[in-house]
Amino acid sequence: MLNEVEFMSMPFFEKVKKIYFEGEFIVAIRYYGYKINLYLYNNFYVEVFYNHKKDMIDKVEVLSYQPSRIKFYTDQIKLPSDLNL
Fold this sequence. Notes:
The protein has 85 residues and is α+β, with helices and mostly antiparallel strands. Helix content is 28%, strand content 36%.
């Protein structure tokens, strides 16, 4: 089972493949020019940034548990209380 560091060290297309085949879709939000899909993968959350103008995925990142990032999702879903926010 991959952890966050191992996941982020993978090549871009491998990360995308892992998320779409093995991740659990949680919610999608819009942020500036992106549609960001949030997935649960191996007990951590991953954001997939889809750029509408380019019609492509620009980046895949492990969700930062900083309150400034979490607040984008908390109004739509209930994240586990053990995030220590």
